[in-house]
Amino acid sequence: STEPKAERDDDTHYFSSYAHEGIHWTMIQDQVRTDSYRHFITSNPDLFHNKRVMDIGCGTGILSFFAAQAGAKKVYAVDASQIAKNAVMNMKANGISDVVKVLNKKVETLDIERDLDGEKVDIIISEWMGYACLYEVFLPSVLIARDRFLRSVDSGGLMAPSQCSILMAGWSDETWLKEKVSWWDENKYGFKMRESMTKRMYEEGLIEDFPSDGILTQSTCLRDVHTATMSSELKDCISFAKPFTLRFRDQLKANQKFNGFLIWFDTFFTTDGRLVEGLALEDDHNWTKSEGEVGFSTSARATSTHWHQTLLLLKQPFDVTADTELEGVTTWSVQPDNGRELEISMMWRV
Q1: pLDDT for res 107
Q2: Which of 26, 51, 144, 310 could form a disulfide with 132 if both were Cys (CB 3.0 to 4.6 A apart)?
């Protein structure tokens, strides 16, 4: 008889990938990321002093350290990965085990009486973002925790970050394309490799820091993820369809090709949880911040982060001019074969 096929366990693979110290080195040394969280938390002692805080996906506990430093009464540091053992050691080494309680479990399994001392928390902090913002699909866990364990927003409950905005622009860069794609056109040591070595470039999002000079269009906001109000349902917080229009910049060279869609996200920490205009960090927009508020971008024009940007590369590029207007619809959903991956489709016309 044939044994039934074991059900795929995407969560186990996901959490085990965060058990090794190397990935936490990558995240902590990302100064844009870590300093933004630190600045928001430690610059707002009035928000954090004597408050109960939950740190979801705590990793080494770095955000919990900041919360304790800002005067939090109690911090619940939650992580289902085995890195939580490191967090326990880190709290002991810094003498704050009485303030920070490390919970090595999925946040969805927490019990308010057993794990949270019978009370809801005042603030949730979490670095839940993945590539293109939603990759790894960790956002639903954070929003479920908000619904179950955070004081209502109306009574002062706060989410940090308060918002992420997913942005997109048209892109092309001849030098990059020659180095990374066309390089395979010629035989290597007399052998053909082009078809196999470029196939996945057109099927998967490419993750790296792309040349900012390759941005051809004005940016468009695909989605504002407002963590205080967004539904925790997977179909609402991850899946969406968005019409878009890309308008090209005036200074385009002759015979300009359009080679792909470049995606990144901006992140905002506001003291009152309000929604910020999605393009607030673009060059031609001004964001009026209150004292202690923070915003950072993962754009190609900004300081590099470990998120980089995501490029959807076209197998068949096309010519554009400054008068070209590209209209389309992008659809995002959870990848059917892996609950931690995204599936992004693009349909467009010029």
Answers
A1: 97
A2: 310
Residue 170 sits in a domain whose CATH number is 2.70.160.11
The residue from 7, 21, 119, 136 that is catalytic is: 136
Same domain (yes/no): 240, 318: yes
Q: What is the pLDDT of residues 209-261, one digit of tens each?
A: 999 999 999 999 999 999 999 999 998 999 999 999 999 988 888 889 999 99
With 0-12 / 13-18 / 19 or more C-beta atoms within 10 angstroms meaning exposed / middle / buried, residue 201 is middle
Based on the domain organization, do 120 and 178 belong to the same domain? no
Where residue 8 falls among pLDDT bands split at 50, 70, 90? Answer: low
The whole-number pLDDT of residue 254 equals 82
Residues 175 and 119 in one domain: no
Residue 80 maps to a domain: yes
Indicate which residue of 127, 282, 293, 341 is catalytic.
127
The answer to whether position 116 is within a domain reads yes
Domain check: are 185 and 326 in the same one?
yes
Which DSSP string corresponds to 233-287? Answer: SHHHHT-EEEEEEEEB-S---TTEEEEEEEEEEEEEE-SS-----TTTTSTT---
Asked about 136 being catalytic, the answer comes back as yes
**Catalytic residue flag (residue 277):** no
Count the neighbouring beta carbons within 10 Å of the beta carbon of residue 156. 14
Whole domain around residue 171: which residue ranges?
A: 163-349
Q: pLDDT tens across 279-332, in order?
A: 999 865 667 788 899 999 999 999 999 999 999 999 999 999 999 999 999 999
Residue 320: enclosing H or E segment and its boundaries? strand 309-320
Q: Tell me the pLDDT band of 206, cut-offs 50, 70 and 90.
A: very high
pLDDT score, position 220: 96
End-to-end CA distance of the chain, in Å? Answer: 56
Same domain? 29 vs 115: yes
